[in-house]
Amino acid sequence: MHELAITQGIVNFALDEAARRGAEKVTALTVSVGALSGIVPDCIETYFALVAEGTLAEGAKLTFRRIPARVRCIDCNAESELPYFRLRCPACTSRSVELLSGREAYIESMEIEEKE
Amino acid sequence: MEIKVIHHIMEWNEDHSNEIKKNLADKGVTMINVMGSPGAGKTSLITALIARLREDYRIGVIEGDIAGKIDAETIASLGIPVVQLNTDGACHIEAMSIEHILPDFDLDALDLIFVENIGNLVCPAEFNIGESARLAILSIPEGDDKVAKYPLMFSTTDALALNKYDMLPYFDFDPARVENDARDVNPDVEIYPVSTRTGEGLDALVDWVKGIVRK
Ligand SMILES: Nc1nc2c(ncn2[C@@H]2O[C@H](COP(=O)(O)OP(=O)(O)OP(=O)(O)O)[C@@H](O)[C@H]2O)c(=O)[nH]1
Ligand SMILES: [Mg+2]
Ligand SMILES: [Zn+2]
Q1: What residue in A sits closest to B11 (Cα-Cα)?
Q2: Which of B4, B5, B11, B14 to mutate to test binding with chain A, by most A CBs within 10 Å of its CB?
Q3: How far is CA A86 from the centre of its chain?
Q4: N or C: which end of chain B has fewer CB within 10 A?
């Protein structure tokens, strides 16, 4: 159910932005989603058609850019991708890690058709 | 035409959350977001904390439920101001709902608000509601694998109460595993084994609450 609310947020933003720019249609949206963000792209995809129906964003192509979770280890200096949600260095198992990416959840770009 | 936007997906919720935070800070009110599965003991724990904190603080409660007002009636029977928030099917509380409901309280007459979030180990974690701190509850009968299976909730909480500790002898529940899994996603999380039934461990959790209530 919360993906519905999140999808509504995405569509509302796209519609506001389109209106602000006097666009006729939103044709595409790119959303970046980090592996640790808790956002489930498949669910958003499912709700998107429903929420966008009858709006300027109806039929827009939704693309997700999935961002892996990466850490830098303070102890061994290794930079690695995390295989699961576990903030430990995969190389040496230290918990002293700095999260480099993985929590992202943002609309990155959109494509609009402007009025003639 | 393509346009770059970089707009955070949760901004519509964050804006309201920040607004609430500011409002509560102005009024000197601390808000604790209590989260956990259905039946983990959220109402029981809030009730137990109220009993131990009401001499020192003026307390209010927001009861989030998908439907009904059973928990709100429990709290109201204690003589504590309580507002019921029904989400009509939604699995989480959003900041805007809290914003709408706060005017029902006299904030000048409160120091501390507990929000009992919807019973759910996943969704509420994604929504900030203007809280000062989060308290997640995991109860022994739910099993010691829950932190590993539902990491987001435990990664975003400030404190974790392991409730129904009196049930430990009856379940294969390894507290060390939970602690280890919790620190893997949230190195600084404070963990409190408690039982609202026997009162075990509650003093330490009360001290945690006192530590975050605005002076
Ligand atoms: N043995 C034992 N039972 C407990 C403890 N705390 C709560 N319970 C029982 O667990 C059940 C659920 O407790 P609630 O406080 O209603 O749980 P909740 O998380 O508020 O539940 P929902 O609001 O329905 O999601 C009740 O039957 C409580 O009596 C405890 O420390 N030990
Ligand atoms: Mg309850
Ligand atoms: Zn390392």
Answers
A1: A9
A2: B5
A3: 20
A4: C
